[in-house]
Amino acid sequence: QFPPMNPLWHGLLGFAIGVLGTISVIGNGMVIYIFTTTKSLRTPSNLLVVNLAISDFLMMLCMSPAM
User: Fold this and answer.
1) Could you give the count of Cα atoms lying within 13 Å of 48 in the half-sphere of its Cβ?
2) In a domain, 2, yes or no
3) Domain containing residue 51
4) Cα torsion for 57, 64, 20, 44, to the nearest 10°?
5) 15-32 as b/e: b if 16+ CB within 10 A
6) Which Pfam families does this UniProt record tie to the protein (predicted)?
7) Number of domains in the chain
8) pLDDT digits over 14-62, tens only?
9) Residue 32, phi then psi, degrees to nearest 5
10) Under a CB-based contact definition with an 8 Å cutoff, are residues 31 and 66 in contact?
11) How confident is the model at residue 26, as a pLDDT?
12) Considering the chain, what percentage of its residues have pLDDT values greater than 70?
């Protein structure tokens, strides 16, 4: 029904997904690591941020395309 995609777009989209995934893993990992190692950051509002980081990790695991 649709013409095949240009192979260049496959490469560009794969590269973009890889870069965004790497940035997401590093950023969420830093949030979780800093929260668990710094006792003064354990406040209810920061707990919300850590819960968002953990849920983002779970969404990445469930929704990331198979490589």
Assistant:
1) 2
2) no
3) 9-61
4) -20
5) eeeeeeeeebeeebeebe
6) 7tm_1
7) 1
8) 899 899 989 999 999 999 999 999 999 999 999 999 999 999 999 988 8
9) -65, -45
10) no
11) 95
12) 97
pLDDT at 49: 95
Q: Is the pLDDT of residue 64 over 90?
A: no
Q: Is the pLDDT of residue 67 over 70?
A: no
Total residue count of the chain as it appears in this document: 67
Task: Let me know: does 28 contact 53? Beta carbons within 8 Å.
Answer: yes
Amino acid at 64: S
CA atoms within 13 A on the CB side of 54: 10
Whether residue 14 is contained in a domain is answered as: yes
Domain-located, residue 38: yes
